[in-house]
Amino acid sequence: MADKEGIKIEKNYHTDVAFKTNGNFHVKGAANLDWGMKKHLTNIFNPKSGNTVMFAFDHGYFMGSVSGLERLDILIPQLIDHVDVLMATRGALRTCVKPNFKKGIALRVSAGSSMINEDLSREIISVNVEEAIRMNADCMAVQTFIGADGQLSSIDNLSRVINEGARYSIPTLGVIAVGKNMERTSQYFKLATRIVAELGAHIVKTYYCDDFEQVVAACPVPIVVAGGKKLAEKEALEMAYKSMQGGACGLDMGRNIFQSHNPAAMADAVGKIVHNKFTDKEAWEFFCEKTKK
Ligand code: R5P
After folding, report:
1. Pocket of ligand 1, beta carbon within 6 A
2. Considering only CA atoms, which residue is closest to atom 2 of ligand 1?
3. What's the farthest any 2 CA atoms get from each other in the chain?
4. What is the whole-number distance in angstroms between the Cα of residue 259 and the centre of ligand 1?
5. Band (4; pLDDT cuts 50, 70, 90)
6. N or C terminus of the chain: which is more exposed, having fewer CB within 10 Å?
7. From the alpha carbon of 252, which atom of ligand 1 is closest?
8. Atom of ligand 1 nearest to the CA of 58
9. Is the pLDDT of residue 57 over 80?
């Protein structure tokens, strides 16, 4: 095993050089996957922009009813047309989303902790791959706690989902979880995202941080950036813009959309940054214009 001193010496991330082995496929690191995997990834990442706006409303799996998500049956129909992918639990999808909707699905398949527990880092796999197929999932989302007490079990969960998904060509989304005492540094995110990608995740969800372009450069699969706790809309759009400038392939945003005073306009504004190269300033003006009406 490489010694710890040796791995501290960083070389060049070549952040100005595009990913080299993409062939003619629009999703990073996916050129060598089979047709089924590519079809699911195309349901997630728009072939024109190469990017995605995922809407995360899976919070109930450990937080119960969250502010803004009290009535999924009312909220979700209002937002479906404004995002590319719904990231949710099977319970939320089955009960509150009409099966005729045409967008991608990122199905939450790990569970087991609740916010009243001290340690959230020990999860189980609660949804198997056959159920993911029945739900028509385009990827399966697994929480991954690198560096936390539950690291080994979450790596076990992630690996089992990747292996099961590989049997039926369903991609896996590795969600980097950051515990209370963990720092949101580029050093940590470089470690965590790379581990999750090397274990075989096809997409990684993580947070924006300083030197984000290095995190992206070192990760051989697409990174989608988590929204995190609610910010003022202007700040959230700035974070979205910086993420895209840093090389993210989209956002996977929850509270910054559903806790906005105008969730649909916020989702649209994020979409302008993600798909239409809007700056944060342009997206903010767009949001203000939309919310005037
Ligand atoms: C993140 O770890 C979980 O997937 C959350 O339930 C959710 O996706 C977070 O979204 P946000 O932080 O943007 O509200």
Report:
1. 56, 58-59, 87, 175, 177, 226-228, 253-256
2. 177
3. 60
4. 13
5. low
6. N
7. 13
8. 6
9. yes
Task: Report CA(205)–ligand 1 centroid distance (Å).
Answer: 9
Q: Which structure tokens are listed for 53?
A: 């706006």
Probe ligand 1: pick from 52, 54, 59, max atoms within 8 Å of CB?
Answer: 59
- DSSP state string for 130-185: HHHHHTT-SEEEEEE-TTSTTHHHHHHHHHHHHHHHHHTT--EEEEE---TT----
Amino acid symbol at 94: R
Atom of ligand 1 nearest to the CA of 253: 13
Which residue shows structure tokens 């496929």? 25
For residue 71, CA distances in Å to 38, 58, 99, 150, 157 come to 34, 13, 18, 32, 30
| Burial group, residue 272, by CB count within 10 angstroms (0-12, 13-18, 19+) | buried
Give me 229's structure tokens: 């706790």
What average pLDDT does range 255-281 have in this prediction?
Answer: 98
Residues constituting the chain: 293
